[in-house]
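Posting this for the archive.
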Amino acid sequence: MNTETIAFIAEEDAARADAFLAANMEATRSQIQKWIKDGGLTVNSRQAKANTSVKAGDTLVLHVPILEQTEIVPQNIPLQIVYEDADLCVIQKPKGLVVHPAPGNPDGTLVNALLYHFEQLSRVGGADRPGIVHRIDKDTSGLLVVSKNDTAHERLAAQFADHSAHRSYVCLVHGNLKEDQGTIDAPIGRHPTDRKRMAVVANGRRAVTHWKVLARYGDATFLQVELETGRTHQIRVHMAYCKHPILGDPLYGSISPKLGLYSQALHGYRLTFVHPSTGEQMTFYAPLPDDFLTALKRLSPDGNLPEWSMEGEAI
């Protein structure tokens, strides 16, 4: 059976290798233990077991079986292309669109749309994720950069890995934050009992979120949010951890029908990176989606939108 190699460098100690991997992968601990039992794990190039301890700086390499899958077919799904050249394109992803095929979402994804609209896409990320450099959640709207060749992919991926690529979001959260801005530095890993959720856990990966208040509406606050790291569900988890879950988020908070929100009010409005070929710094903006605008108007006593500029300074 063909396998996919996944490598990690531990940022901190962990009592067991299987627990470390479960906190950093979208796989159950029992599944990871099976892969390890089949000889799929090395730590610092030495064969390892599930209960092998992990030290900060250790290199873990896990070989995961690649399941046979049907061919991903191109589908004529409309795309909102913000920018395009020979190396890349920037897409404004709407809510409800899954980025790549996965169990439960075999088609109808951004990848299916990309295969229809573009003749060439990078393959560095795997056959099921052509062009995909980074992801955002299904029900989060916002900007994504897609690579058309492997060189562009590798150079862009390196920027996301070292955090030189910059992503800015806005969100609406429950409650009134007392401070005008702040930073959440709390490790994120798989929830100990609910595998669909992430959580702040002691053995999670370091996660840092910066936030700034843009407007207050009594029981709700409009925030600008910047990611220093990019963990799964990071903003949603961190805001729920601070007792200010994102409005409309059914997984970490609750929906907000009165505001017209049935999924999280979270939008990636600004994306900055260095072009992989020209070296030019590029910044792109995505206006707020309709449901977000509706919620802001319903929250405002006079029905007006807050004075806020997408081109404003980063936190």
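The chain has a mean pLDDT of 90. The helical segments are 17-24, 29-37, 110-117, 150-161, 234-241, 290-299.
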